[in-house]
Amino acid sequence: MRSSGSTPNPRPRVPLRLFVVLAGEDHPKACTGRRLLLRQRAVRLPREGARTPGPVILDPFAPTPLSGADRESAEAGGLLVVDCSWNRLSARGAFPPSPRGVPHRGRRRRLPILIATNPQHYGRVAQLNTVEAFSAALAILGRPDEAAEVIEGFHGGTEFLSVNSARLARYRTAAHPADVTDAERRLFGRK
Fold first, then answer.
1. Which residues, in sequence order, are CB contacts of 188 under 8 Å at separation 6+?
2. Could you state, in order of their start, the residue ranges of all structural domains in the chain?
3. Which among 175, 173, 178, 82 is positioned nearest to 134, based on CA atoms?
4. Angle at Cα 183 formed by Cα 177 and Cα 186, nearest 5°?
5. How many beta carbons lie within 10 A of that of residue 65, not counting itself?
6. Which of 30, 117, 125, 141 could form a disulfide with 156 if both were Cys (CB 3.0 to 4.6 A apart)?
């Protein structure tokens, strides 16, 4: 039965655009970014020179954590993850300043502290792989269905959401970066 027009039909939410830049530093079979590109059409390579707003770039060395304050930016420009090796990233001591394909504009945000469940870094704090990073960001930005969908079928995927469920729920309710930092302190006992 159709609505008489007295109640508006809610507009369906458009999934966030997800972009991945492949640094080519990982073994191809262990590269979750490459697997996302091959498996899911929701994840794609960024187009150089695109006239869209800059994406939220997930950078593990950014001082500001991802929070609800980034929701509008992510909805306008999407989320971008650089798939690179944690070993090389640690040796460099910094995120690649401008790897090929990463737009210069966009907000750089780090993910709040979470526990990895991927086979390469199981149980390590904050060493998420690409698919875990996408899933965590989507969950924090209030898109739990998309978070579950993107990580589905990856080793440790459903476990990632389960192990981090309380943390993700806490971070999702944080409206500002300072609230996320406070939640990290409470959850992990950090100063």
1. 113, 125
2. 18-188
3. 82
4. 150
5. 23
6. 117
The two three-digit tokens of residue 176, written as one number: 């500002």
Q: Tell me which H or E stretch contains 169.
A: helix 165-172
- In the sheet with 79-83, reading across from the earlier edge strand, the strands are 43-44, 18-22, 79-83, 56-58, 107-109
- Using CA atoms, how far apart are residues 155 and 163, in angstroms rounded to an integer? 14
Among left, alpha and beta (phi > 0; psi -120 to 50; other), residue 176 is beta
Residue that has been written with the tokens 């191809």 in this structure: 28
Is residue 43 classed as helix, strand or coil in its secondary structure?
strand
Query: Based on the number of CB atoms within 10 Å of its own CB, is 186 exposed (0-12), middle (13-18) or buried (19 or more)?
Result: exposed
Per residue in 23-38, pLDDT (tens digit) is 777 666 777 887 888 7
pTM of the model: 0.84
- Give the C-alpha separation, 149 to 140, whole Å: 14
Q: Quick: pLDDT tens for 97-113.
A: 455 545 556 789 999 99
Q: Side chain identity at 143, as an amino acid letter?
A: R
